[in-house]
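Exercise 7 asks you to align residues with tokens for two separate proteins.
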Amino acid sequence: MEDILEPAVNLVETLHKEGFDEGYGDGLVAGKEEAKEVGLKHGFEVGEELGFYRGCVDVWNSAIRVNPAAFSLRVQKGVKQMEELIEKYPVMEPEDESVQDVMEALRLKFRAVVCFNGCEIGV
């Protein structure tokens, strides 16, 4: 003898599964779009920061070439190390595990060079 509620239970289960599958599919699409937006934003921010450091290094190198005596050896070494860190940054490999380490080292080196130059950082 068949349970009189079985068709209703099956209907509820079927509707639940269909709703879940539809929601899951919509979530995948929305998740990919959001991930793309976040990735573009983060990539732009990293590029902006690297570009800032590259510009600082270029200006400091130009000033050092014009008047090397105006910059201590410590500052000159720090600028050279910053340049090496910028070159070392894996721009085309964002999943490289060294990305965060290189960026943090670059930030610290920038602060050191600025301090040794007698400037203040407005953070």
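Second protein for Exercise 7:
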Amino acid sequence: MLDCPTRPEGHGMFSRIVLTCATAALALTLWSGAQAQMLDRVVAVINDEAISYRDVEARVRLALVSSNIPDSQEARQRVVPQVLRKMIDERLQVQEAQRLGIVLSNADVDGAIATVEQQSRMPRGALLSNLARQGVDPARVREQIRADLTWMRLVTRVIGPQIRIGEEEVNDRLQSLADRQGLREVRAAEIFLPVESPDQEAEARAMGERLQEGLRQGTSFQSLARQFSRSPTSSNGGLLGWVSQGMVDDEVAAVLETLDRGQTSQLVRTSSGFYLLQVLETRIIGQSVNAEDSTVTVARMTLPVPAGAPPKADLMERAFALTRNAKSCAEFDALATKAGAPLPPRQGPVRIGELPPELKGMVAGMAANQVGVPMDTPQGIVVPMVCSRQDAMVVSPPTAEQVRRQIEDERRDMLSRRYLRNLRRAAFIDVRM
């Protein structure tokens, strides 16, 4: 029997003292298959709002499925603490938004889901239906997305007006960029696992190692960031944007410097916690990509639609599921053969600007060895893949307005972390077993 305290000795300290012990017991309960009355029991109270076993079970299932982590007792023991902490943060964020009169509509949530599908190169409507088929309640997905959106709107309304960027600060950044012109910068994404007290060290490291295993099994970095990262960037799949030396922690910058396009780091320990980092693109400071003049070789898989076939939306989802994990055009060809489709023909090298309109917009944002979104055409369901890409670069130093927005984003990120930390400290958080 786990011996966990059940009443707080101080609002802020209680969650740090009890959470690890309590969530270990919770993971065992969820794995053993709790009865209905157990599922309705309260796991945690955040101010005057309760989280039940049922709530946590549903979110754990979402986290495991979307992260491609096999459902086991050991996996749940590692995942439950992060899931419960994220749920507690979400309750605090939504409560603060309600206090300030910030409310989101269902249309806002629908739009965010469509954006996630677009970023993940999924057909419209595929996200919720794919998860539902794997036992995930779509309402829980909407709940998480609503919380993320609500916090983003709160940060924009409350923190945005506090940010003042002077001309001198902008000019200093422009001069710094000019001094570093010709050096490399990267477009990166992050997963952040905080370590707020020594007893969280082993738990955060174990979670990071589990996420690394998920990445090795083909789970997208963005999916893991949305479920497990505790950074404000989590709602955007962990996207940091373009960064270079001096814009992030020295430990993070040093690791990013060693990564090439498409590579993911090992766990990085900083003073605040653990990071996993991924480099999405690289470029030279002072240059930018001219997509129209960049050249690509594109493969297109065509899946015929026979008479009496299922609805087009179902076929689009199947095409996405078939091709999404292809890492090269050789794998893409093998998948076509497996599906009984013709070998995907190649087009190129060709300028992106010369591609057909239905392909140009999609391919412009794709990297080499990346699969596109299935398209409904008269010939059938067509799935494109970029086999190779050679970017055309142009000299394009950033404008003062671009630099101002970048500094604002950095300041907003820092202040939003501080805001949430203050909400945690002021809250009554009672984790119960």
